[in-house]
Design a protein that fits this description.
Blueprint lengths: L1 H14 L7 H53 L1
Length: 76
């Protein structure tokens, strides 16, 4: 596990031009990443709520459709 962390750190360090990163810059980077994760989470929550509403509508409409089909079947 420690080796992976070092490899990742070295990769980011090389992408940054091997410049020193201050703790303040690192803190702002972490905060920005957390904000991005929060935005993704809220987007997923909206999708989940949309699916939940669709399922509730389905369970309301299903008995109505079955009743209508039964009524039509009894008339024929």
């Amino acid at each position: 596990m420690e080796k992976n962390i070092k490899e990742i750190a070295n990769r980011y360090k090389s992408e940054n031009g091997n410049e020193r990163i201050t703790q303040k810059e690192l803190l702002f980077y972490i905060i920005a990443r957390l904000d991005d994760l929060e935005k993704q989470d809220s987007h997923q929550d909206k999708k989940i709520e949309k699916n939940r509403i669709c399922i509730q509508i389905f369970w309301i409409i299903l008995p109505i459709c079955v009743a209508i089909a039964g009524l039509i079947g009894s008339l024929i």
